[in-house]
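2024-03-11 09:14:02 DEBUG pipeline.ingest accepted 1 chain
2024-03-11 09:14:02 DEBUG pipeline.ingest length=298
2024-03-11 09:14:03 DEBUG pipeline.predict start
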Amino acid sequence: MATTILTTNLNTVFLSTASDATFLVPEGTIRNSNTDDAIQIGDGITNVANVTLWVDGAVYGNDDGIVTDTANNVAIHVGSTGVVRASSTDNIGANGIELGFSSNIFIANAGQISGDFAIAAQAGADTTILNSGLLTGVSKGVEMGIGGFLDNSGEIRGGTERGVDIRGDGTVENSGLIAGQTDGIFAITSVALTNNATGVIRGQSGVFADSGDIVNHGEIASTGNGFAVDLLDDLNSTANSLTNTGQISGDVGLGTGADLLNNSGVITGDVFLEDGDDTYEGLASGVVNGKVFGMGGA
């Protein structure tokens, strides 16, 4: 498969008939649009598939930097020298990468992506994101669609809102930094989260979800009046689980199901087990610098 070089240009490039194709923005090249998206993969009408885009240069969009629409099986690689930016970062909805009505999208970032959201995935976008670089959002760092997967070893920063916003169920593995003003990680329904030893998650609520299975070997912290881990919005009695070998700074709240908290680390705050046949296991050097409330459970 031949590679098409996208050279320096001040106009939007439309990859609307680009199935089974590879494109490269080389280092030193600037793709810029003063009026619209810088690069569009798909046009919202004709399906395109099997497109790979490599960005080692700079992509600036007055609206989105890169947008996919009616595109399937797309891989976007931003190298260590790559920059993708929505230039009008004060324009709500101008995102670094916007994933429209697309599926099976893979994004690997080792560079810098920024916008209102660094990466925005609409509902239905089955997305895998690998980040070892910097994702910065004026509002949110990353918004993921249903069934998305995120592996972060870099930095994800949300400005006025969330570091990571999952619009359904999602899976997150973190060994870097995820930080937001309101929530470090938010999930409308559930999150499967592994926070590794080098991982840090911070926000007014560190992790806020309707339900979840969380393993923490690193640090999860509330920076305000919220909970460090808040699974209290569980409306369907789902059994939540939290395994902590690291540090949790702030209160912990589980839901109304038969929840399990396994603690061999340090929790600095109170623990609210809520309703359900709950279990708290304090193992080895596990410490709670606060109180454990059984609430209405067994």
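2024-03-11 09:14:41 DEBUG pipeline.report The mean pLDDT is 89.
2024-03-11 09:14:41 DEBUG pipeline.predict end
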